[in-house]
Amino acid sequence: MEKPRIKNEDQYKALRDKGYSKEKSARIANTPNAGKKGGEAKKYEAWTKQELYEQAKNVGIKNRSKMNKKELIKALRNN
């Protein structure tokens, strides 16, 4: 069985050093634009529910289809 690939190894290692689990570190490091800085992201409250849902899907949040907008924001912030 092939080992899963990490898109951003540096970010993965930094997250592991901070004490994040292997699973959470991999999820974060494998999201699109992982580790890129730009400062242009709008606050989650300005996102549509669909945008929040897609982001939750990208980072592997479970039960996201049952969440409302407020719950999606909380889950994304605490992921």
UniProtKB/TrEMBL annotation:
Residues 1-42 are annotated as: Disordered. Signal peptide: none annotated. Pfam families: DUF7218, Rho_N. Residues 50-76 form the Rho termination factor-like N-terminal domain. Gene3D superfamilies: 1.10.720.10. InterPro entries: DUF7218 (IPR055642), Rho-like_N (IPR011112), Rho_N_sf (IPR036269). Residues 1-26 have a biased composition (Basic and acidic residues). This is Rho termination factor N-terminal domain-containing protein. It comes from Mesonia profundi.
